[in-house]
Amino acid sequence: MKPRILTCISAMVLLTSLATIPVRLVAQDKLITFDVPGAGTGAGQGTFAFSLGGVAAISPSGAVTGPYRDASNVSHGFLRTPGGAIITFDAPGAGTGAGQGTVPVSIIAAGAITGAYIDARNVNHGFLRTPDGAITTFDAPGAGTAAGQGTTALDINPAYTIAGEYLDASNVLHGFLRTPEGAIATFDAPGAGTAANQGTGPGSVSCLNPQGAISGGYTDASNVSHAFIRAPDGVFTTIDPPGAGTGAGQGSFAGSINPAGAVTGFYIDASNVTHGFLRTPDGAITTVDIPGAGTAAGQGTNVANLNPSLEITGSYIDANNVSHGFIRTRHGAITTFDVPGAGAAAGQGTVPYSNNPAGAITGFYVDGNNVFHGFLRTD
After folding, report:
1. Record: fold of 15-377
2. What does pTM read for this prediction?
3. For 257-313, what is each residue's pLDDT tens digit?
4. According to DSSP H, which parts of 112-209 are helical?
5. Strand, coil or helix: what is 8?
6. DSSP code of residue 247
7. CA end-to-end span of the chain, whole Å?
8. Following DSSP, what letter does each residue of 70-96 receive, concatenated?
């Protein structure tokens, strides 16, 4: 579940850096915290805890899904209904050893969920869970079968089309699109590298819009990342925001696309500082840097998701390497927030991951003991 990160072939891209803009602290009474029953309480365990982090997704109706890690470091899926009830589930074939299990990634209004599970051999497989709880598993053609390889479903749209990625036997990443009938087509962005740890991958949670456009990124032969939009007809547009670094491990990645085709993501500059960006359907690019974000390598602003109203959520890492949440309106006003109980040491803090059309935000926070917990922020 590692990040995947193209030059716009249409009109000139305009970069507009944010000037100083209003920042206010959100009232804490809008924040609900929750823990899934059975979630572990040790460091690296808890709700939305998986590997290097967690994945949180919220539907238009306010249902939340994601993984939790138990006391044995096994991941399981959960669904939190709009009313607060929590249902847990495991995909058939999911392993029961440490680092294995079920990892939901995306949910739609109807309640269907997609994601991945890791089997007893540490191979990834995709799954679809329908609203009645039935689970279908699948593998993309060409997916590798060794540990760390396989198929990861990343997003589902209202038509039940699924976008995702797979790692082949040579550890090269490729994208795929699965139709509602189960047919899977694979794709690679032009310019994607073909060596190990290179290739093409969609974003996650909301990388597939209702029209079938996909956002994501590819890593080229020089190990530089480039953001892309893949149109429903398969045509790729590269997005390289001005300021993106051109060295190995640098570049850009598009993580989210809304119904109108606006895209958000992040880029890493030549100093290895992270910056968010918003690309509107006309091709204009705005850099998003949250006041208070650190300016050293590994710090900065990470845009996670946008909704149909162009409200953006994500996190920023400050000069002390602590994470904080933010919400940015379509007009550029920024609200920052910290979940009560979030830790204040390096590697701890608040990490929003998804926002829905109503403006509700879900994500996780890491407390002072490095345990993960879920949160829901409502307007």
Report:
1. Methylamine Dehydrogenase; Chain H (2.130.10)
2. 0.91
3. 999 999 999 999 999 999 999 999 999 999 999 999 999 999 999 999 999 999 999
4. none
5. coil
6. S
7. 31
8. -TTS-EEEEEE-TTS-EEEE--TT---
Query: Hey, is 262 helix, strand or coil?
Result: coil
Q: What is the Cα–Cα distance from 56 to 366, expressed in whole angstroms?
A: 14
User: Bridge-partner residues for 58, per DSSP?
Assistant: 64
Both tokens assigned to 353: 């991951």
Tokens at 135, concatenated: 């689970």
Q: Which of 234, 303, 291, 292 is nearest to 267 (CA)?
A: 303
Quick one: how far is CA 122 from the chain centroid?
21
For tokens 């409200």, the residue is 311
Q: pLDDT of 247-259, one tens digit each?
A: 999 999 999 999 9
Task: List the structure tokens of 154.
Answer: 């990343």
Token digits of residue 244: 């993106």
Nearest to 176 by CA among 219, 102, 230: 230
Angle at 378 between CA 374 and CA 379, to 5 degrees: 160
Rounded CA gap, 273 and 279, in Å? 19
Using alpha carbons only, what angle is made at residue 317 by residues 316 and 323, rounded to the nearest 5 degrees? 85
Distance (Å, whole) CA 312 – CA 288: 10
